[in-house]
Amino acid sequence: SKYYILIAVLAGAALGLNLVGWFDPFSFLYRAMTVAVYPSASVSTKAAFAWIYEKDPGIGQYKVTAASEPVYEVLRRNVLPASQPHYYASILIAGLFLAIVLLNLYRARFWCRYICPLGALLGVIGKNPLVRLKRVETKCNDCKLCVMHCQGGADPQVADGWKPSECFYCWNCRASCPHHGIKFSIGPAKEGKK
Fold this sequence. Notes:
Layout: H1 2-14, H2 20-23, H3 25-55, E1 58-59, E2 62-63, H4 65-78, H5 90-106, H6 110-115, H7 117-125, E3 131-135, H8 145-149, H9 172-176, E4 182-186
């Protein structure tokens, strides 16, 4: 859970360890792109153009190399590296990156919901917000469209069970409700309700 990761990150910071960079999504994305994705794309591009050059395929008298070689020359001068370094951790980083992307298919915004310590910190701070969700019981027919469009897993359909710590305030739940059964209001939480 992201709250345990937040505790570990804060404990590491107190002990002088910089663990934030391991779980920062922008840092992780940059690391994955530079160590795994860009090198793979570079090697694949060079291999594809080398194959075209060696096979020299064509359609009638027209050769593909007549078009591919100028394109490759532009890529070689401006995009592709002169020599592509390889790192031992590339496969590990690529595997983690692929796993995170695939986990988003399982649960939307998987990183934000379950891993990100910043999301946990924002959740702790936003536990008792001034802007609160209210479900209008008489208008709700329990279609769960609000749940399908909820990006944070805030459970907008549960009466008095909405999780403000997980809410991104995207208002997708409100927009997706065909009966206008969800409203947002400003004010502190009522006593006895979380």
